[in-house]
Amino acid sequence: VAKTSLMSPPWPEVKLPDPVEEAKYHAEVVQKVNKMIATGQYGRLFAVVHFASKQWKITSEDLIMMDNVLEAECGDRIRMEKVLLVGADDFTLIGRPLLGKNLVRVEATVIEKTESWPKINMRFRKRHNYQKKKIIVNPQTVLRINTIEIFPCLS
Amino acid sequence: RVTDRFWRVQEVLKYARHFRGRKNRCYKLAVRSVRRAFVKSTKARREKKRFLRALWITRIEAASLEHGLKYPAFISNLLKSQVELNRKMIADLAIYEPKTFKSLAALAQRRREEGFLAALGDGKEPEGIFSRIVHHY
């Protein structure tokens, strides 16, 4: 039978590796990473955190400024849940979509609560005598990320 | 009598000091330029979001092509594997954490292959239907 264009799919044929062997390999890798975390063989950790409806890539001793009010006094310690990704030099832990709270711990302190610089909102239509000027001042909060810790509870 | 005309005029001229030509000195010309500058800045604040998103997308595309994946394949497979990183983060990771980006690309590639296999299914014809290919024995 002659080969037509619709006989085989347009993508190249793919073969997945053996599931049993793959499971073994995965367990090995997980154990190795667990050991590395337990012995503390990582340098600087970075994390991707979802906070104030934005995603931030943070490390320790990091400053973050958000364009809203946090209901916390200056000097309060905050623990950030909703961690999407944690990584070091040799390994990364990717959450689907979030990582467990018993795996990662991100601590931050509120440093200052200020207002933004006065932004000017102006609308103007020519020849129609229409102009409006509004000065917008947003409250801002500055956080400092103190530590990012990971615990060896992978499975 | 108006006594603080100087300060009213300075309020406008202070925003025009870095302009070119007589607009930075003469009030009549400065008022028009300052007004246009404010209007343009308000509109630009809305366009900045679109512009930055396009920039992130081009960066992610370039980085994923280095790993042999196209942007639509990369993003759709990442979303299907329930990784909810937004484009800003992926672009930042591609710049500053190349190893992490490589692992994300590998994850997307693996999910893509699994999708291909799932789309092919069993490879059998549905029951009760004549196949187009007539087998001659």
> What is the element string of chain B, with H for helices and E for strands?
HHHHH
**Residue share in β-strands of chain A:** 35-45%
Helix content of chain B: 55-70%
**The CATH fourth-level homologous superfamily of chain B:** Ribosomal protein L20, C-terminal domain
**What is the number of E strands of chain B?**
0
Q: In terms of per-residue confidence, which ranges of chain A show pLDDT below 50 for 5 or more consecutive residues?
A: none
Give structural notes.
Chain A: It comes from Sula dactylatra (Masked booby). Chain A: Belongs to the bacterial ribosomal protein bL21 family. Chain A: This is Large ribosomal subunit protein bL21m. Chain A: One of its GO terms (molecular function) is structural constituent of ribosome. Chain B: This is Large ribosomal subunit protein bL20m. Chain A has 155 residues and is mainly β. Chain A has one domain (19-150). In chain A, 14% of the residues lie in helices and 43% in strands. In chain A, the strands form three sheets. Chain A has a four-stranded antiparallel beta sheet, with no helix packed on it. The mean pLDDT of chain A is 91. Chain B is mostly helical. Chain B has one domain (2-120): c-terminal domain of poly(a) binding protein, CATH 1.10.1900.20. Helix content of chain B is 67%, strand content 0%. Chain B has helices spanning 5-13, 27-66, 71-80, 87-96, 98-120. In chain B, helix 2 (27-66) packs across helix 4, helix 3 (71-80) packs across helix 5 and helix 4 (87-96) packs across helix 5. At the A-B interface, strand 5 and strand 8 of A face helix 2, helix 4 and helix 5 of B.
